[in-house]
From TrEMBL:
Pfam families: Fer4_10, Fer4_5. The chain crosses the membrane at residues 12-31, 69-88, 100-120. The keyword DNA damage does not apply. This is 4Fe-4S binding protein.
Amino acid sequence: MIVLIVSIGGIFYPKLGYILLLVFATLLTIAPFRGRWFCGNLCPRGSFVDFWLAPLSRRLAIPLFLRSMWIRIPIFIALMGFMIYRLLGTQGVVDRIGMVFVTLCIITTSIAILFGVIIAPRTWCTFCPMGTLQRIMGGSKYQLKLDGDLCIDCKRCQKVCPMQLRVFELQDLPDCIKCGRCVDACPKDALIFH
């Protein structure tokens, strides 16, 4: 709901854009200790795509190239550059600053909706600039561990993973959003975060 409040309400009341600063501060605080945990548990856009887009999505495989740092870093630089450029033009006016964040929210939410419907709900999350930053800051923290003796190779973990990670092979885990769906789906309790 926060995404809709900022994206729509922010057009009429730009100070709502400041909510994004709180979101950003929260993820920066958590990321060094839990990696992308924020993405799977607190991210307003993640909740939005899980709840609203999942029923509309084609649920196709997320293209691997979208996970590439060759795509993610330029997107991060472009959005941060856009934000800084726009902030420099605000002349310190509170509403104009807020509108910069509202505009970013509208742009990124539009991209998330487009990719979420055409491909899979969490497609945006594979190249999200904030997710990329969290991966860089703490991708190896709070990792998923698999007890190979308990695993029965049912692949239920992979089927429920919103990021479409190969959980049972423990690959691509810096992009794990630590939502816990795989842990809950495992019939043998072979997965645990630590």
